[in-house]
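thread from #wetlab-drylab

HS: before we spend reagent money on co-crystallization trials with flavin-adenine dinucleotide, can we at least see a predicted complex? here's what I'd submit
DV: go for it
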Amino acid sequence: MGFAQGNFASTKLHTVNNTKVLIIGAGPVGLTLACELARRDIPFRIIERCAVAPQGSRAKALQPRSLEILNDLGIAEDLMKIGSTELPYRKFQGNKMIGETPRTGFPRNDTRYPKTLLIPQPEVEKALRIKLQELGGSIEWATTLTDFKQSNNGINCQLENDRQHEAMHCSYMVACDGGKSSTRKKLGIDFVGETHQEEQLWVGDVEVAGLERDAWYNWLSPVFGIAFALFPFRNSNIWQLQAVMPADQDGNIPAPTLEGFNQLFKERTQMEGVRLTNSSWQSIYRVNIRRAERYRAGNAFIAGDAGHVHSIAGGMGMNTGIQDACNLGWKLAAVINGHADDRLLNTYGEERIPIADWLLATTSQRQKVMLDGAKTGKSGFETLGTNDTTQLNLNYRGSSLSKTGQSTINGLEAGDRAPDVQLTDGSWLSDQLRGTEWKLLLPGEEKLTALTDLVKVINTSDEHIREAYGGGEAAILIRPDGYIALIAASVQEVTKYLKQLNGL
Ligand SMILES: Cc1cc2nc3c(=O)[nH]c(=O)nc-3n(C[C@H](O)[C@H](O)[C@H](O)COP(=O)(O)OP(=O)(O)OC[C@H]3O[C@@H](n4cnc5c(N)ncnc54)[C@H](O)[C@@H]3O)c2cc1C
């Protein structure tokens, strides 16, 4: 395997030419992509501007679809042990508790992860870093992409760390460098949308003396909707704090401090005997609703927050980014390995941009419903977790890769996520679906003749698979990222589909 080259050791300019993919940014999205490439033996490098991983809690909701992806990478079960799934929303007006809304559960039997996992983002990143290391990859810390130029045969990049400059060449580059992505700007890709100066929050991590760690505390207000919120993490002393801050006429809010947190808490909650201490992170969060106008420019791609930013209501930003990386990873590998035509890479934007548009619209809507509800002292919290926010229902039905053929089964169509199902022996279909290959659910013993080493055949004799997949008579081809590519009446149709991938 030709993985990361390690940190720079000397001040000499050197050039590394065998890198197929340069990943910019080691947040959750860059890390997921790195794992996807590492497990397919693709030579890549992943660089990160920061010298160490950030510790602020940031994303705290890991959605069921992301858990399925992380299960495929083999890390979801470890995360389940440190997060929680049952934390009610406890509501106050001033120092008076006015009620409690339980977290909504979604009784579905087509996933082993029906509930949102509440866990701080650094834990997700840590698990991905450990997985990446197991797969032989490593992050180049304190290393920044400073410039690049595309040519006919790839991209020439300039990297910098505090000791040296480096020129390197890669075939593809993926900007996972966050909402302020300098790579996106240099690519000339517009970030279309708006900034809501009037919606700014203080966010931070604190310890809290005087409150039980058994609920997500929210202080409702007719002015702010939610005037103050405190969210405890399991297996940790930390609580995430959020408080709406009115901006001055220039659109600025004061810098957050622990003293400021305590003062605001007192003003807005009138709670006695509660003290915020040991703040390990303080930041300002501004609501931006924006989407990159395209996800590809030449051989460069955009993923995660670099492609979409929006309200945090519903907890889906990091999740959508992880799902971007999962969509792009297998496609880059297939093209680099010569198993698919370069045009496969155009389906990344074709499939993921409609999801980003849905995301921007739905999170704005949820934010409004929640805040309007909170302003009137009613709930509104139900809108934060719905069947949609599980992201299990998102699909690629409209994609050029989805070939319905003659069949739909049990309402399933090509482009849908392949449902998981618990088998008669108690194991899950996802145990068999795990891995980098395509999967073919087949009722009989027929043989495939195209790209057979890339396709794992799974027999559908188990009655629970037959029920979930409509009697088990069709041949169902599942993509490496877990979405149905084709529902076919014969293996010949599957062969034809796979052969066409090379010429799409
Ligand atoms: C308070 C808060 C709560 C949130 N809650 C949720 C939630 O519940 N659920 C959810 O899904 N999301 C949530 N989010 C959003 C989530 O944090 C982001 O969507 C997520 O971090 C995006 O991941 P990313 O990898 O795309 O970008 P980032 O996490 O921003 O990572 C980008 C990385 O690229 C690096 N970088 C930038 N430029 C360069 C360069 N030129 N060279 C090298 N490296 C570079 C940066 O240092 C950074 O480490 C929340 C965010 C906040 C602030």
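DV: The pocket of flavin-adenine dinucleotide is lined by residues 24-30, 47-50, 58-61, 121, 144-145, 176-178, 182, 203, 285, 304-305, 312, 315-319, 321 (CB under 6 Å).
HS: ok that's useful, forwarding to the group
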